[in-house]
Write a structure and sequence with these properties.
Elements (H helix, E strand, L loop, with lengths): L3 H36 L4 H21 L10 H24 L2 H9 L1 H12 L2 E3 L1 H18 L7 H28 L3 H28 L10 H27 L2 H22 L7 H22 L4 E3 L16 H7 L1
Antiparallel strand pairs: 1-2
């Protein structure tokens, strides 16, 4: 067994990584909501491209400072990852536009069972009964909080299916690449962020025009809008990095389950700062149920047999690492 000190240190690091992700994710949602609702910047795909361009700049600076060691990611692997990641971004935007808010939320909830299916098929993961039940409780709780009117149309359903599967595949692929090539979070971002930034900056204005009938170059870039765009890009660096750190430490399923804590926080902060509607009983009950399910999932999945691989071996491409490698940088972050 591992010494108690090491287990405590790992638990503290895991908690810190998760808190980092929650803070940055909730922060960027609040900033983007203000940017789009108050200042009319509705170009979500282009904004995401700017996020990855800023992240690329951060990884370039860290590489120049020697914090990121040179590594190689095969081009086919990079192309597959960028395809899934960009399809996820565009798919989510299109799904939100073509579907009701209720059906959009249901589609997002479907990412958990899809991620579970990917782990069962490719990683040979087996879940205990308690782990499965805890996931169901989380799904019910979040559904009670977020799902209101539900209407479905054919093109909206297709967009939702594409969005769900591409997002689940992108998140699974993060964990897969980190394990296979022994990449740290910074190194994987160093490979993927430039490709995503370039492709989204090229495609973004056209996709946004199709979705909004507005041109990004015709937007009124006043000082407050520019300030919020810069703030959004700055927070996005932490959001992108924390996602890679969390999926690397946990799994795509755990990331999705615990990620609904951010949904609860966004609801609460939305009520506080934007105040369009008040908290009602069924929303509060849904929040409580979701939090109970998350706590149950954490307990059930960490027990022996709660979530384990039956017979899985992933070929690893070993890389030379220096004592000041990315593991230390990830821990510092």
């Amino acid at each position: 067994m591992a010494p108690a000190g090491k287990l405590d240190k790992k638990a503290a690091s895991d908690a810190g990584a998760w808190l980092f992700n929650v803070v940055t994710s909730v922060g960027i949602i609040m900033v983007n909501k203000a940017l789009m609702a108050r200042y009319g910047f509705s170009f979500a795909t282009t904004l995401t491209g700017l996020h990855f361009a800023t992240t690329t700049l951060m990884t370039a600076v860290l590489r120049c400072m020697g914090h990121i060691q040179p590594t190689h990611l095969p081009l086919p692997e990079l192309v597959k990852f960028v395809f899934f990641a960009n399809l996820s971004i565009v798919g989510m935007n299109v799904s939100l536009m073509w579907n009701s808010v209720g059906f959009y939320q249901i589609a997002k909830l479907c990412m958990i069972p899809v991620s579970c299916l990917l782990e069962v098929l490719y990683d040979k993961v087996r879940y205990s009964r308690d782990t499965k039940l805890s996931i169901v409780v989380v799904l019910i709780g979040v559904a009670v909080c977020t799902v209101t009117d539900v209407s479905v149309n054919t093109k909206g359903l297709i967009a939702a299916i594409i969005a769900v599967w591409s997002t689940a595949l992108q998140q699974y692929y993060v964990h897969y690449l980190q394990r296979k090539y022994s990449f740290g979070s910074f190194n994987l971002l160093g490979h993927t962020a430039p490709a995503q930034a370039g492709s989204l900056m090229l495609l973004g204005p056209f996709v946004d025009y199709l979705l909004t009938s507005k041109r990004v170059d015709a937007f009124d870039y006043n000082s407050m809008a520019v300030f919020f765009i810069i703030l959004s890009c700055s927070i996005a660096v932490g959001t992108n990095l924390s996602q890679f750190i969390c999926i690397g430490r946990f799994t795509a399923v755990s990331f999705q389950v615990l990620g609904h804590m951010k949904t609860i926080l966004v609801l609460i902060l939305g009520f506080i700062f934007f105040g369009k509607e008040g908290l009602n009983l069924h929303v509060v009950l849904g929040m409580i149920l979701a939090v109970v399910g998350m706590i149950w999932y954490g307990s059930a999945s960490s027990k022996p047999g709660g979530k384990e691989r039956r017979s899985y071996s992933l070929p690893t491409v070993h890389k030379h690492r220096t004592p000041s490698g990315e593991e230390e940088l990830d821990e510092k972050v």
